[in-house]
Amino acid sequence: MRxxxxxxxxxxxxxxxxxxxxxGGNPRDAVVAAWKKGGLTPSPLTASTVTVGKDCxxxxxxxxxxxxxxxxxAADAKAAEEAGLAWVADTTGAARVSGTVLIAVADRRKxxxxxxTINQLLKxxxx
Amino acid sequence: xxxxxxxxLAGLAVGIQPATAKGKQVRYVGLHPVPKADGGGICxxxxxxxxxxxxxxxxxxxxxxxxxxVGDPVAYGYDGPRHAYKGHHPIHVHAVVGDDQEDVEFCYxxxxxxxxFTPPPAIKAEFVVADDAYFYVxxxxxxxxxxxxxxIKVNAVYTPMVYTRPVIEVEPPSGWIGVRFxxxxxxxxxxxxxPPVVVVAPRVRAGVEVHVPVPTxxxxxxxxxxxxxxxxxxxxxxxxxxxx
Lengths: 127, 244
Fold this sequence. Notes:
heterodimer, A: alpha+beta, 5-stranded antiparallel beta sheet, 5 helices, 5 strands, globular, disordered N terminus, B: alpha+beta, 4-stranded mixed beta sheet, 16% helix, 28% strand, disordered C terminus
């Protein structure tokens, strides 16, 4: 019984990670929630080992690659914008800060030639 | 040993090739056209972003380390909100893109054209609205006059473009920049007829080299009587054509 309860708690924590602001706490969730509220459908985010930051998760929105990294302070997140652009690499993309979260987006599959989805991703995120 | 030198030379040759935009991030802010080679149309990303294609000198201005488009987006298929202007006018870039990096640039498009923005409230008094179009009627800064000869060449880009421009039939208000600084006539003259295709027979290398020299275009700008500073209707004297 105790084991089942523990499994439930662990499961709930795992689902909550990167799945909306309802889970609370993680500023990354607020970004994902804002995207969903704006009509976008982000994939579940998974932990990502990148040089941009230590606490990063990546996924997709449509065919756009997204990377959300959380930093201790907003200044730290801002300082990581260049690293975010480096993650974008040789394609269309952007990196902007939303509080303590760095949002980096990259259109590696050239699925958004007009940039409208990227624009939504950047504008919907809380300031 | 000779092989090593050859390899070194080849490496150096690769290293000194001029950098192109391909594969290198170029920073933009605000909406702008996408080159035809990269798909064409408009990029609607409003905030700072990157592409791997370059921006040209006539239609873009530097805003910090980003390129900001000052041309008419409708000419490239922009389908968003638009506002009509006639003649040259300032663009408060910081107000359009929404940052605190003060930057006033000038649009040098002659005649009726569109932008996606209106003048910010702080400088609305510098414009007169007539026939739903903005006319700039304030005193332009010296930097406008200094950059004008180079920047009015942008009209040679737009003149041949076929798109629906705003229809402005009203008489321009007094003090309009297009009256005080007479609008130049832009004539595109082809220097010479396109040269024939020259096929050079191979000598050492295998294959055939086909040289197709690109015909050069010369843009002649005629300034009617120079700058008509002061006075309501000056500047339309004899047309002088300055060939460059």
